[in-house]
Design a protein that fits this description.
single chain, alpha/beta, Glutamine Phosphoribosylpyrophosphate, subunit 1, domain 1, Rossmann fold, 3 domains, 8-stranded antiparallel β-sheet, about 25% strand, binds fructose -6-phosphate
């Protein structure tokens, strides 16, 4: 969480830093700040609130915008409430050093007490102010340069960090370091300028050359010089790899939509097609996935597959459990990464762990992977962000290719995760002959139709909007589904909760009788997935039970359905497909519904309160 955007070079730093922070706001947005150095003064502006609030302040302080070196931060509070004082950047006591930090220094209290005994006084409640003063103390004690002081200080901290540090007595360099939180360095032409950011989006229009620091690495960035990278703990030199960015500016802009979430919902036909690319060979009735083919023996001889993930990605994992067990007959368990990592799970070298993550930076998922690897399991990653920590930590894996997802509520990441996981289930089912050729080929042909079907489905937007208008003032909602669509019910409820703040619960439809049915009255909207295959009659009975208690039914049905239409208050039709593929379609109306309700309630759709896109703290 938290976003870092910094610049050192020949251009005005302010617009680069501020625009960078706006692109990184998905990482946290409870306070923002920046410092611009003009060769003489460190000009600091910071505030509780969003980057737009920061801009309002700096607009009044026009003079504070000049200078070719700048560092900015958008915060998701960990230590200390979100207020002006706790906002970053933070200065050292002398005022010479300044830092922006993403992560948590766990032993900050011990260090703070120690520094207080040495005469340091702290203004904020943050671990970050402790870290910059520790760096200053080391620098003074050792009489060393900034880079060495940062390195020595970091060897005595416990926790996670991505930091950028500037010393006004050495104004041609920035020092950055990472452990557990991402940091990218954009290398400008002839090394005349450098961009530092939590991901590459802030500098994509300036350079396509990026260095991604690995954990426990630090870099000294000096104008006109090659970036010097070394390991923090053993001091070994690392030759930095300059990667070519694939990301384009259009991908990270709203492209005419009011919100990123809406844009990303509408991008799903393309995103799923991109996920298919090179893998779904429908004409040849084939799936090509080298990451599975190269490890087929491991998959086919595994005792079980354990899926670890958080939030929406966990819901995708649950869909995968149904898919893999149904299609490939391999036992699957799905675990919240945060529970798995701490519950002393039984893992052996006969287990395969699949880690699912959009960002590839979720701290709990990353820790679960490390635990599984330490016990000998083979770990396969399903990630969206190329080069992310999870993508690098797993033995192999498949990217979802959804493109940048900026809205905090995950949409296209979810459907592309399910797409990859469906391909894996089909591939394994074909390989171990759990699926006959005929069934496999039928799936391939139906799967191929999905992007077009999603495109058609998106035309229901106005209809869903009219339903949203009816239920926008509900205070509680239930989402019900069975089989492959039970996880979609969970995901539908999560989408509504996180962006509209309406309480919603997802349940397997049959579980309703074991408790939630007590909640049902004439004010309760119940969203039911009642597509015409898998358990249709059972779901119809569940709908009858709800109607008998005056609940309002909004049913997602297969086009042409008449039975549910007769009973439900509203129906939303999806195109016909195989039962196992319906999650790729039933999800869409719920995304649109949550979006419209949140807009009607005037909520901040792309940046819901208290959330952050990338949860890099546990
Ligand atoms: C919900 C949402 C979160 C994430 C979760 C895991 O819309 O986005 O629940 O799914 O924080 O994030 P990743 O997939 O990046 O590991």
């Amino acid at each position: 969480m938290c976003g870092i955007s910094a610049y050192i070079g020949y251009r005005e730093a302010y617009p680069i830093v501020v625009n960078g922070l706006k692109r990184l706001e998905y990482r946290g947005y409870d306070s923002a700040g920046l410092v611009i150095y003009d060769g003489k003064k460190m000009q600091l502006s910071k505030t509780k609130g969003k980057v737009s609030d920061l801009e309002l302040i700096t607009d009044k302080e026009e003079g504070r915008k000049k200078g070719n070196i700048g560092m900015g931060h958008t915060r998701w509070a960990t230590h200390g409430v979100p207020n002006d004082i706790n906002s970053h950047p933070h200065f050292s006591q002398s005022g010479d050093l300044v830092i922006v930090h993403n992560g948590i220094i766990e032993n900050y209290d011990t260090i703070r007490k120690e520094l207080i005994t040495r005469g340091y006084v702290f203004e904020s409640d943050t671990d970050t102010e402790v870290l910059i003063n520790l760096i200053e103390e080391v620098k003074l004690n050792e009489g060393c340069k900034l880079g060495k002081a940062v390195q020595l200080a970091l060897t005595s901290v416990v926790g996670a960090y991505a930091i950028a540090v500037f010393d006004k007595t050495k104004p041609d360099e920035l020092v950055v370091a990472r452990l557990g939180s991402p940091i990218a360095i954009g290398v400008g032409k002839e090394k005349k300028e450098f961009f530092i950011a939590s991901d590459a989006s802030p500098f994509v229009e300036y350079t396509k050359n990026a260095i991604y620091l690995e954990d426990e690495e630090m870099a000294i960035i000096k104008i006109g010089k090659k970036v010097k990278v070394r390991k923090i703990h053993d001091d070994s030199i690392v030759d930095p790899i300059i990667q070519k960015l694939q990301m384009s500016l259009e991908q990270i802009e709203k492209g005419g939509y009011d919100h990123f979430m809406l844009k990303e919902i509408h991008e799903q036909p393309k995103a799923i097609t991109d996920t298919f690319r090179g893998r779904m060979l429908a004409k040849e009735n084939m799936i090509k996935m080298s990451s599975i083919e190269d490890n087929l023996d491991k998959f086919l001889n595994a005792d079980r597959i354990i899926i670890v993930a958080c939030g929406t990605s966990w819901h995708a994992g649950l869909v995968a459990e149904y898919l893999i067990e149904d299609m490939a007959r391999i036992p699957v368990e799905v675990e919240y990464a945060s529970e798995f990592r701490y519950r002393n799970p039984i893992i052996t070298d006969k287990d395969i762990v699949i880690a699912i993550s959009q960002s590839g930076e979720t701290a709990d998922t990353l820790a679960a992977i490390k635990l599984a690897k330490s016990k000998g399991a083979f770990v396969y990653g399903v990630c969206n962000v190329v080069g992310s920590s999870i993508a690098r930590e797993t033995h192999t894996g498949a990217y979802t290719h959804a493109g940048p997802e900026i809205g905090v509520a995950s949409t296209k990441a979810f459907t592309t995760q399910i797409t990859v996981l469906t391909l894996i289930a089909l591939k394994l089912g074909q390989a171990n002959k759990s699926l006959s050729d005929e069934v496999f080929e039928n799936y391939i042909q139906k799967m191929e139709l999905i992007p077009k079907q999603v495109e058609k489905l998106l035309e229901i937007d106005e209809h869903v909007k009219s339903i949203a208008a009816v239920y926008k003032d509900a205070t509680n909602c239930l989402y019900l589904g069975r089989g492959f669509n039970f996880p979609v019910a969970l995901e539908g409820a999560l989408k509504l909760k996180e962006i509209s703040y309406i309480h919603a619960e997802g349940y397997p439809a049959a579980e309703m009788k074991h408790g939630p049915i007590a909640l049902i009255d004439e004010n309760m909207p119940i969203f039911v997935i009642a597509t015409n295959k898998g358990h249709y009659e059972k779901v119809v009975s569940n709908i009858q039970e709800i109607k008998a208690r005056s609940g309002k039914i909004i049913a997602v049905v297969t086009e042409g359905d008449t039975q549910v239409r007769d009973i439900a208050d509203h129906v939303i039709e999806i195109p016909d497909t195989e039962d196992a593929l319906t999650p790729l379609l039933t999800t869409i109306p719920f995304q649109l519904l949550s979006y419209h309700i949140a807009v009607m309630l005037n909520k901040n759709v792309d940046q819901p309160r208290n959330l952050a896109k990338s949860v890099t703290v546990e």
